[in-house]
Specification:
By secondary structure, the chain is mainly alpha-helical. It contains six helices and no strands. Helix 2 runs antiparallel to helix 3.
Length: 181
Amino acid sequence: MSVGRILGWVLAGGLVVAALAASAAIVEGSFDEDDWKVIGTSLGFSVYGALAAAGASLRTRASEAKRQLGTVTMVLAGVAFVFLLAWVWPEPNESEDLVRAWGVASLAALAASHACIVTAARRPCDTGAVSLLATTSIVLGMLDAALAILPIVELLDPGDGAAELFAVLVIALVLTTVLPP
């Protein structure tokens, strides 16, 4: 069974666990702290599993650079999930450093996953315009992640027009991601 297929089952399993936990809490008539932990962990498992699956899709490619991007993406998703677990279990951890580490790892995993998805969709027959859009999309994804990470690590104040610049860059990211197909 391929890694991508396994991660697909992981995604489905996490969603099923989250749905069962939420359903049980509804039937019991209350959501307690443990219910929220199980639901959050299951959803996190699914999200990070999906991000890792994008990396897994590149692990079978002939290009060493693509395989490395896939591996880095899978590792970043795994690290982000571990930080999520450390934050939520056994008691919610209020450490700002842990929350920052989780945010940084999550944004890095998201950007790497985006790069994997865009890279995997590229074809040798792509026109120059499609190649330019795909490359621009990957660069914007990395730039957006970096700009979102800077306030998390307190190296940038999101005021003074930074939020507006970030919003414009996200719009450009979305545009350059959806136009190539």
